[in-house]
From TrEMBL:
It comes from Flavobacterium hercynium. Residues 22-41 bind DNA. InterPro entries: Homeodomain-like_sf (IPR009057), HTH-type_Tx_Regulator (IPR050624), HTH_TetR (IPR001647). This is TetR family transcriptional regulator. It comes from the Bacteria. Residues 1-59 form the HTH tetR-type domain. The keyword DNA-binding applies. GO terms for molecular function: DNA binding. Keywords: DNA-binding. Pfam families: TetR_N.
Length: 199
């Protein structure tokens, strides 16, 4: 039952926002009593913390699956971007990360430290892969570009209230990041990926 509550709460939090969803809403959606929820979670903050952990585990599992498909480095980034778009397409257009930072800063800080570590590893591996594939320049300061990109991505998500707007700016950031690193061959691959989004 605990896992079912976390799954339903995660779904509602992502769709409607962390602040607006109440314990009553979750109980009503599941056709259970609020007392049942409190049997497993002493308050909403604990449920939010567990829900965000579950969502992040799912996200990183999907990223891992995409990486294992062995796309080239640029396509890999676009496939991951598409995965995030699909995940949040039923959202009421309120960015979950923005809400988490605003209303539950302590939970947000815990999420951030974990995410920073995971994203740094992924961004580094992607840049190294792109260099090997001659899509990114070989003279890049990898650690610096990793830092540039996660600073950009986290800043967008932390400060953009609208999920739709965050997605739009993130795509522009991905293009900006890729162009900054790309070889001539990489630019051709980037243009190909951008064309797929437009069509």
């Amino acid at each position: 039952m605990k896992e079912k509550i976390i799954a339903k709460a995660s779904d509602l939090f992502l769709k409607l926002g962390f602040k607006s969803v109440t314990m009553d809403d979750i109980a009503g959606e599941m056709c259970i009593s609020k007392k049942t929820i409190y049997k497993y979670f002493c308050n909403k903050e604990v449920l939010i913390a567990e829900s965000t952990s579950m969502v992040h585990a799912q996200v990183h599992e999907i990223i891992h699956t995409i990486v294992e498909r062995n796309y080239n480095a640029i396509q890999e980034n676009f496939e991951i971007k598409e995965m995030f778009r699909d995940m949040f397409k039923n959202n009421t257009d309120s960015s979950p990360i923005y809400q988490l930072k605003k209303h539950y800063p302590e939970i947000y800080q815990n999420v951030l430290s974990y995410e920073l570590d995971q994203c740094t590893q992924y961004f580094r591996a992607n840049i190294e892969k792109g260099i090997q594939e001659n899509l990114y320049r070989s003279d890049l300061d990898i650690e610096l570009y990793v830092k540039f990109y996660y600073t950009l991505v986290f800043h967008i998500n932390e400060n953009t209230a609208s999920e739709k707007e965050a997605q739009r700016i993130e795509l522009a950031a991905l293009e900006y990041h890729t162009r900054a690193m790309a070889t001539a061959e990489g630019i051709l691959e980037l243009e190909k990926q951008l064309k797929k989004i437009i069509t």
